[in-house]
Amino acid sequence: MKFVDFVNRNAIRTNVEADTKEDVIRAMASSLLEAGKIAQDQYDGIVEAILKREELGSTGIGRGVAVPHTKHPSVHELIGAVAVSDEGVDFDSLDGEKVHLLFLLISPPDRPGDHLRALENISRQLRDDTFCRFLKQSKEPADVWQLLEEADNNQFGS
Amino acid sequence: MSSPAAQRVVVISDKDPLGLHIRPAEQFVRLAMKFPCEIEVVRESVRADGKSIMHMLTLGAEPGAQLRLEARGEEAEQALDALARFIENGFVLDQTEGQPPADAGGG
Q1: Quick check: A110 and A126 in contact, CB under 8 A?
Q2: For the HPr domain, which residue ranges apply (chain B) (predicted)?
Q3: CA A21, CA B78: separation in Å to the nearest integer?
Q4: Beta carbons of B42 and B65 less than 8 angstroms apart
């Protein structure tokens, strides 16, 4: 699975100012709402489900990256949003590092494989230091999208 | 690094249909970090540091996937016992996890 298969181009935010887990998750869900990928009347339920999942254990995966997520019956394909925070967000990650790069995933309940493939892709690409650093330094959503496309085309080693 | 790696082959259980997603990866890493030895997990051509969640997710290990656990150094066998049990029990931690075994030959 590639980034362009699940990241919505209009749901990428840079210079995100939210500095708590809840606020950044709300901001990312809002970006999916504005992009028309989730319904207005599902917004609260989706945010609540993502926050509930965080209570089970942080989705921080190390190196300043987090992947908050949930399954939700209102979506029919895996959808993803991306956020970049300069200041960083405290995410209770195992390595103690603040999170600067977030991928938010919402998947249909009946497609468990897609979620795993997306995680595999995100983590495999981010193991490349250059790609990870460039993404965190992105100032515009268009820069993030370009980097994701380049990664999809194997322009970063891994 | 020069000592040979202790190894164990495990299969991801189908108790969790998602396979090795973030939660079990985090639990695996927490368990691995209790041991001083170096731990690596290999799936086909992909090799992951068993003490990094990000690395573990690169394995993309769905139910039925076969993984090779490798440990080098102090408490390598104990680490492999605990980690293999965690995987094979469907990502369920033992109560005693991380404590030194009473009988090293048991199991």
Answers
A1: no
A2: 5-94
A3: 36
A4: no
In 3D space, the residue among B51, B80, B54, B53 whose CA is nearest the CA of residue B67 turns out to be B80
Inter-helix orientation angle A43-56/A21-34, to 10°: 140
Q: Going by DSSP bridges, is the β-strand pair A69-71/A99-107 parallel, antiparallel, or unpaired?
A: parallel
pLDDT tens for each residue of B18-34: 999 999 999 999 999 99
Which residue reads 């293999």 in tokens?
B84
The domains of chain B, with CATH numbers, are: 9-88 (3.30.1340.10)
Q: Which CATH superfamily is domain A3-152 in?
A: Mannitol-specific EII; Chain A (3.40.930.10)
Domain extent listing, chain A: 3-152
A126–B19 CB contact, under 8 Å? no
By the CB < 8 Å criterion, does B9 face chain A? no
Q: Which of A65, A69, A120 sits opposite B58 (nearest CB)?
A: A120
What ipTM does the predicted assembly reach? 0.94
Q: What angle is formed at CA B27 by the lines to CA A72 and CA B84, rounded to 5 degrees?
A: 120
> Catalytic residue positions of B?
21
